[in-house]
Amino acid sequence: MKALVKTKPGFGNLELLDRPIPSPNSNEVKIKVHYAGICGTDVHTYEGHYKVNFPVTLGHEFSGEIVEIGDNVQNFKIGDRVTSETTFYICGECEYCQTKDYNLCNHRKGLGTQQNGGFTKYLVARADSVHTLPDNVSYRAAAMTEPLACAYHAVSKIKVSQGDIAVVMGPGPIGLLVAQVVKSKGATVIITGLDNDQERLDKAKALHLDHVVNIQHNDLKQYVDNITNGYGANIVLECSGAVPAAKQGLDILRKKGAYVQVGIFKDSEIPFDLDKIIQKEIRVVGSRSQKPADWEPSLQLLSSGAVNAETLVTTELDISQWEEGYQHIKGGVGIKVLLRPID
């Protein structure tokens, strides 16, 4: 079968290769991939900024159907429509594994990074990570369950109350999903972007988010102050990984507000205004990936229509068209690219 394989470190080195069709072990299932989404992590890996095990088939956002099950698997059958958590291996012994915070296990191995992922026709996943799709959730939408679970995980880090003013910095795929999740919890959402985010800001309007603000043409602090009688936002979720956005996020928060860092910065060390955190008693929390508890609520958000993930897909390509998908994302025009397997 054909697979998109990162063969060695550095920029590029992503090759369309023939790989053997895998077979599941006793506690695994084999999934025929229908769609796999290109994630920012895949882009970083392609560019040589993210470490993976070489060689490895990329792709950790996917949907498909079960075509083979291991001897010990009881909860699934051939033909089930599914998606899977990215977790393929955990130590099962550390404190984080005991609480199912698998995203924090030091020994965790993930699909598409340390284990072959979804940019191919077939993959194997551990049965404990697999989730059945609701009948009304399409394969296209389900391929975005993983980023939605990341968004759900970020929002779960804080308390969201009815009527809270929540600012989402950055209208990329994660930002648009985070905004929909926080809105589903009763918050009034302000999502921000720049001139080169115009298509994404238009999508935010189409999703009926409460306030869509181009901060190159509007003073965001004044905008937030006008809405909040000068108090500032209750919540800021920074999804862009841009230093100016992080600084602005702290500035527009009210006293006792909550700040969630979702986006990943290019450099691990950045200047941060600790004085604002102290003087306003701001709560700052990070959010890393997702964990098992985030998946079923995410699928229910898709099923209920509270989150529309499928509308974020701006192009579909075959895995042989990686370069076109990469340029679509890097150009800033597209939102989400789904890849299809080839024979």
UniProtKB/TrEMBL annotation:
SUPFAM superfamilies: GroES-like, NAD(P)-binding Rossmann-fold domains. Residues 10-339 form the Enoyl reductase (ER) domain. The keyword Metal-binding applies. Pfam families: ADH_N (PF08240), ADH_zinc_N (PF00107). Keywords: Metal-binding, Oxidoreductase, Zinc. InterPro entries: ADH-like_C (IPR013149), ADH-like_N (IPR013154), ADH_Zn_CS (IPR002328), ER (IPR020843), GroES-like_sf (IPR011032), NAD(P)-bd_dom_sf (IPR036291), Zn_alcohol_dh (IPR050129). It comes from the Bacteria. Its cofactor is Zn(2+). The keyword RNA-binding does not apply. Belongs to the zinc-containing alcohol dehydrogenase family. This is Sorbitol dehydrogenase.
